[in-house]
Structure prediction request, 152 residues.
Amino acid sequence: MIVSPDRFLYLPDGTYLWTEDRCMRAWFLVQAELTAALPRHERLVLMVGTPAAGKSTWLERNADPRFVYLDATMFRRAGRRSLVRFAGQLGKPIDAVVLDTPLDVCLERNAARAPDRQIPEAKLRWMRETYDRDPVSEEEGFDRVTVVKYIP
Prediction:
């Protein structure tokens, strides 16, 4: 099962609309989905990476139906920490899959997205810099961290 806050940001006409309020509501709905789904699955897997790093594409090719995947950037340790605690409260292991895609590739892919799906370049760079200062590690409580290197 794949859970993503993005799916809650689409309007009925298919337009993607990100606002602070809509994003907060999306994360509330993600939490509800995870709470309902995780007891029926073996583990939680966080996808980690800059926007346009290839997280959703990786999931299309590699998702295991026994697991729940959270398809989001997860670039901040605080967000990861709360999900590690959440999985622990449910007695479920938690993994992280990190898409290590060069920033220039992410910027290029982002520019090729539909205008309503593009992340402002400055925001994308900030997200990457934030993650680079504090990358994922098993010390955060993950059972396993897998880094997927970008191969052109």
Summary: The chain has five helices and five strands. The first helix runs from residue 20 to 37. The helical segments are 20-37, 55-62, 77-89, 103-112, 121-133. The mean pLDDT is 93.
